[in-house]
Amino acid sequence: MNTLPSTELVNPHTDGIDRLPTDEMLRRMNDEDEKVAGIVRGCIPEIAHAVDAIAEGLRSGGRLIYVGAGTSGRLGVLDASECLPTFGVSVEQVFGIIAGGERALTKAIEGAEDDAVAGAVAMDEVSVSKHDVVVGMSASGGAPYVRGAIARARERGAVTVGVACATPAPLCEDADISIQAVVGAEVLQGSTRLKSGTAQKLICNMLSTGAMVKLGKTLGNRMVDVQATNLKLVARAQRLIADLGQTDLETAAKLLTESGGSAKVGIVMARKGVSASTARELLAAAGGFLSVVLDPTPA
Predict the structure, then answer these.
(1) What share of the chain has pLDDT > 70, as a percent?
(2) What is the rounded distance in angstroms from the CA atom of residue 217 to the CA atom of residue 230?
(3) What is the pLDDT of residue 108?
(4) What confidence tens digit (pLDDT) does each residue in 177-186 have?
(5) Mean pLDDT value of segment 40-47
(6) Rounded CA gap, 225 and 265, in Å?
């Protein structure tokens, strides 16, 4: 029996949406969106398992690789691309692969998700290994491209995570770690860029942010590994050095330059009164955790 994924069901709450006044139409959409965060909350144990696996993989020299098709693929690429400026990781450490290649980021290539062999080949092309964590994302939980990628990644020894927003979700059965945020029928039947997309974005936020926090990329909720790549981020890095380094903005600007643009190094220089090279040595000895350098013997 061929059972449709729940994302293909008709939503009775939004039936007749085309005949509603604009404000009521939007309230109905918002009603549906409001459900998503609670559904994702119910997946936190599985998400936590994945976060720990990602942190361990990255700590061991592995990579976080998102793979998806359509909206799911774009969300994975989006999350990965934000990790460089936010956490200072390289594009080789965290990246996304989308069915259909880069062209699919801006143009829908719907048939690309049906090619399971292409998904497997994508894993071979990036030489997936046992230290990597591959996160397969498919709203319906059945995209052949993603399933093919996850199957090959497992063969190559990687830890695999399946993220789906429907039931049944074969992808989640394929993966080592299953994150199944069942959001129910979409506002528009089958339009998984809506609630499913929102759920996947929330999950990606947790996966990458959680792993980076566990790797010492923050001090509390401060992005101390932020990359000062534009005027806004330069100003943010200077404020971080001034605040956490307990100095003034003029000195912070000087330290940011001397540190080669690293707020984290600049903070250590300010607090410890050391050179940039010594600051880097202290951070390396602390595994990159600024909190350990600043307070090596917490109560």
Answers:
(1) 98
(2) 19
(3) 80
(4) 999 999 999 9
(5) 98
(6) 9
200: its two tokens: 């996947």
183: helix, coil or strand?
coil
Q: Where are the alpha helices (DSSP H) in the chain?
A: 22-41, 44-59, 70-87, 116-125, 144-155, 170-174, 195-214, 231-244, 249-258, 263-272, 276-285, 290-294
In sequence order, the 6+-apart residues with CB closer than 8 A to the CB of 245 are 252, 255, 266, 267, 268, 269, 270, 271
Residue 103 CA to residue 106 CA, distance in Å, equals 6
Task: Tell me which residues are annotated as active site.
Answer: 82, 113
**If DSSP codes are grouped into helix, strand and coil, which group holds residue 185?**
coil
What does the pLDDT look like over 103-153, one tens digit per residue?
898 888 778 899 999 999 999 999 999 999 999 999 999 999 999 999 999
Cα(211)–Cα(203) distance, integer angstroms = 12
How far is C-alpha 196 from the geometric centre of its chain's CA atoms? 15
Q: Which domains does the chain have, with CATH numbers?
A: 6-214 (3.40.50.10490), 231-294 (1.10.8.1080)
Query: Between β-strands 159-164 and 177-180, what pairing exists: parallel, antiparallel or unpaired?
Result: parallel
SS3 state of residue 138: coil
Tokens representing 235 are 């100003």
CA 66 to chain centre: 8
